[in-house]
Amino acid sequence: MLKYEQIANEIENYIYENNIPQGTKLPTVENLAADYQVSKSTIVKALESLVLKGLVYQVRGSGIFVRKKSRNGYIDLNVMTGLTNSLKDFHITSKVLEFDVIRPDEELIKSLECDPNEEVYMIKRIRYLNDDIMCYEESYYKKSIVPFLTKEIAERSIFEYLTSALNLNLGFSDSYIHIELLDSKVAKLLDLDTTSPAMIFLQQLYLSSGQLFNFTKLTYHYKHVKFFLQSSSIK
Amino acid sequence: MLKYEQIANEIENYIYENNIPQGTKLPTVENLAADYQVSKSTIVKALESLVLKGLVYQVRGSGIFVRKKSRNGYIDLNVMTGLTNSLKDFHITSKVLEFDVIRPDEELIKSLECDPNEEVYMIKRIRYLNDDIMCYEESYYKKSIVPFLTKEIAERSIFEYLTSALNLNLGFSDSYIHIELLDSKVAKLLDLDTTSPAMIFLQQLYLSSGQLFNFTKLTYHYKHVKFFLQSSSIK
């Protein structure tokens, strides 16, 4: 992690942990540079990244101000992966339904951009938000990139394991979002009636090298989950 | 607009208009600086903003690469306001159902963060994506910030009018997203059965000064609209 990213994280945590209200003016660049003992240009870069992340806004000639935080109970789409980690206000738990190593079918070959012989970890889980069912998750990891995974790891945070134990450099994600009506199998897993609607996320995760390593289909419980999205520019 | 933002827009348009495929390496910072006749630091800032917008990714020691574009038919959540303008691949049209100046009720006072005496433009529209119904939209603008608006303007692009005619400096937006089952009135407007699901966006738009000036409720047709979301970091 670069210095400015580290400072950006520290400022973000400071705002978060102290529950700094919307509209609060941050200290000047000079003061932040003195506080964090880094150059002004590092502070400027850190603040620019926080503007683009939707955490603060800049009023030219006036200063940097804190933006609104996600309302209680809303999942922040700006930090939507690694849920166990990013949903600091929530208690997330998982129940593993299936765990296996498979060869991808045609659809998965496309979604994971892999070849038919590639070995793939398949994990099906129910995830809980506090005590409510949050989603049904089908997740696929390329074994060539994630060489070792167990049911026990999947019961906890796979994300934590990938970053801390395997030391993978996670990069970025693409998500495709639409509404589907549930079939009876998934409806039962979510404890909903058949043909209830669900928000579907089809998600591809990449390493920072640009390599695709994961495809996940998330089926969100429409009554238990709401989302929050901040954009840093209107255009 | 600052110089680096202008360069970022030009690079974005270049990638977009030339349909540069995913994984393509961009020219070096040195070459881009020469091409655009600006300093290397301006190029670095422009590229950093494009990384955070999810348009390109950076591989340390290797270069900057183009990321995947929204699939055909998907609305990009990273550029979700000013639809007429941002959905370059789509033909967006609007039909105004109601247009009025009102005093806000209690709910709207909260959503627009205004006082009960504030005059507010109320616009109800159906928006079409190519020839399909895209959404039903209820939008509220503070008259103190948007002093003049007409039904004719609302038939076209309000966004275009705000930026080009009124010269407003648009800032950022907050969106709250959930699924609702339609009541009979809105179902009819969307040409769907009552209790069909819909993706609901509750959206607040701010000027770059941080002033809230608009609240919009968007009810998306669940069969005609899909969304795409790129995140620049996984955490």
Structural class of chain A: alpha+beta
Strand content of chain A: 25-35%
CATH superfamily of the largest domain in chain A: Chorismate lyase-like
Integer tally of domains of chain A: 2
Helix content percent band of chain A? 25-40%
Order of helices and strands of chain A: HHHEEEHEHEEHHEHEEE
Mean pLDDT reading of chain A: 90
Report the CATH C-level class of the largest domain in chain A: Alpha Beta
Largest interface: A-B, 55 and 56 residues
Outline the low-pLDDT stretches of chain A.
none
Q: Radius of gyration of chain A over alpha carbons?
A: 20 Å
Distance from N terminus to C terminus of chain A (CA atoms, Å) equals 30 Å
The tally of helices of chain A reads: 8
**How do the strands line up in the largest sheet of chain A?**
4-5-6-9-8-7
Quaternary arrangement of the chains shown? homodimer
CATH fold type of the largest domain in chain A: Chorismate lyase
Q: The biggest beta sheet of chain A, please? A: 6 strands, antiparallel
Outline of chain A: globular
Number of strands of chain A: 10
- Can you name the CATH architecture of the largest domain in chain A? 3-Layer(aba) Sandwich
